[in-house]
Amino acid sequence: MFKRIFIILIAAFIFVQYVGTSHGASSDSGSDSTSDNYLDHYKDAKKLILRAKSLEEKNKVDRATKLYSKALGKLEQAYKTDRNNPDVLNYLGFALRKIGKLKEAEKYYLAGLKIKPDHNGINEYLGELYVNTNRMDLAKERLAVLKNCNCEEYSELKEIIEKK
After folding, report:
1. 127-150 residues labelled b (16+ CB within 10 A) or e (exposed)
2. I need a labelling partner for 50 at 20 to 30 A (CA). Which of 2, 36, 63, 70 fits?
3. Mean pLDDT throughout 145-155?
4. What is the pLDDT of residue 91?
5. pLDDT reported for residue 3
6. How far apart are the C-alpha atoms of 12 and 8, rounded to whole Å?
7. Is 0.85 surpassed by the pTM of this model?
8. Are 106 and 130 in contact, with CB atoms under 8 Å apart?
9. CB-based contacts of 102: which residues, under 8 Å, 6+ apart?
10. What is the tens place of the pLDDT at every residue in 7-27?
11. Which CATH superfamily is domain 32-163 in?
12. What DSSP designation does 148 have?
């Protein structure tokens, strides 16, 4: 008798776990589709930017620019969902800078720094933007922020400033 009750309890437990998991998954995907979509846009944009950087290193600038533009579209979609994510703002600034929209890029970088002033990527890329627009004092300010980070962003920005 005890064995039957035990088997029934185990079967009921497995059944409840199975039903609960499948029900939970469907309700999560329904209620969180916006955030899933947001993450998909962000991840897709990041992949496009990495591919564009690789093409840029191979002097395939036109193809890289097309990928940066494509990434920009994805990032704009992600930004509609989360306007306070410094990583999204960083990549928006980066993509805009790469396609030559420097004023817009600067706005996104500065918005990202308002949220996270010590963001390594934003500080580096904003510093690069300042170098490209001959605002060396501002570039050096970004470098000073990165000075104690012990990160590659510091050395990369330092090298760009020294070459100018």
Report:
1. bbbbbeeeeeebbbebbebbeeee
2. 36
3. 96
4. 98
5. 63
6. 6
7. no
8. no
9. 96, 129, 132, 133
10. 665 655 565 555 444 333 333
11. Tetratricopeptide repeat domain (1.25.40.10)
12. T
Burial (CB count within 10 angstroms: exposed 0-12, middle 13-18, buried 19+), residue 45: buried
Residues 122 and 88: beta-carbon distance below 8 Å? no
Per-residue pLDDT tens over the stretch 37-85: 888 999 999 999 999 999 999 999 999 999 999 999 999 999 999 999 9
- Residues of the chain with pLDDT > 90, as a percent, come to 76
Three-state secondary structure along the chain?
CHHHHHHHHHHHHHHHHHHHHHHHHHHHHHHCHHHHHHHHHHHHHHHHHHHHHHHHHCCCHHHHHHHHHHHHHHHHHHHHHCCCCHHHHHHHHHHHHHCCCHHHHHHHHHHHHHHCCCCHHHHHHHHHHHHHCCCHHHHHHHHHHHCCCCCHHHHHHHHHHHHC
For residue 5, count CB atoms less than 10 angstroms from its CB and return exposed for 0-12, middle for 13-18, buried for 19 or more. Answer: exposed
Question: How far is residue 86's CA from residue 109's CA, in Å, rounded to a whole number?
Answer: 8
